[in-house]
Amino acid sequence: MLAAIRSRRVVRAMTDEPLPRATLEEILDAARWAPTAGNRHLQRFVASDDPGTLRALRMVSPGMLQRPVAVVAICVDRDLAVDYGFARDAHSLSVDVGTAAATVLLAAHALGVGGGPVTSFSRAAAGVVLDVPAGWTPEFLVCLGHPAQGGPGEMRRGTRVTWQDLTVWAPRA
Ligand SMILES: Cc1cc2nc3c(=O)[nH]c(=O)nc-3n(C[C@H](O)[C@H](O)[C@H](O)COP(=O)(O)O)c2cc1C
């Protein structure tokens, strides 16, 4: 598990080899195990492996540097969130998107599939392209595909931080 966490890297160069539906479904099945606020499972997923849809999605996603063969759009069911008593823009809904994103990326990696997060995209346009159901908001795209050589690399090479850079100990009581 720790080895998987440490070896996962964003993949921005992908081959055009299709992803078997069963693999995509396995990744989606893993996503439902992500922890959620109040165990309410308000994340929703819109998946596509259709080349035309992915091409259109790429056109409205400046942050999508790869050409994925599949995408999982992580959405939030805002209408249901409100029914459950959450504020429509509750912080925990964004946290749920993050737990789902990490789970999808790690599940893909565990299956030997490359994954790349994208948040730089037009939510309105992506909603139309993906036909996102009413009441859901698309928040985070995970591009999926088989890793290829070359292509866009790591952002800001050599900036890998240590845990000590990121952590302070809370004072003793
Ligand atoms: C919230 C969030 C948004 C991101 N948006 C993009 C994006 O739009 N395009 C992109 O290529 N990478 C995006 N990334 C990936 C980061 O750039 C990447 O995780 C970081 O450079 C570290 O690379 P690594 O995960 O391979 O260690 C995003 C990551 C996160 C967590």
TrEMBL record:
GO terms for molecular function: oxidoreductase activity. CDD domains: Nitro_FMN_reductase. Keywords: Oxidoreductase. Belongs to the nitroreductase family. The keyword Oxidoreductase applies. Transmembrane segments: none annotated. The keyword Oxidoreductase applies. Residues 5-51, 83-146 form the Nitroreductase domain. InterPro entries: Nitroreductase (IPR029479), Nitroreductase-like (IPR000415). It comes from Pseudonocardia sulfidoxydans NBRC 16205. This is Nitroreductase domain-containing protein.
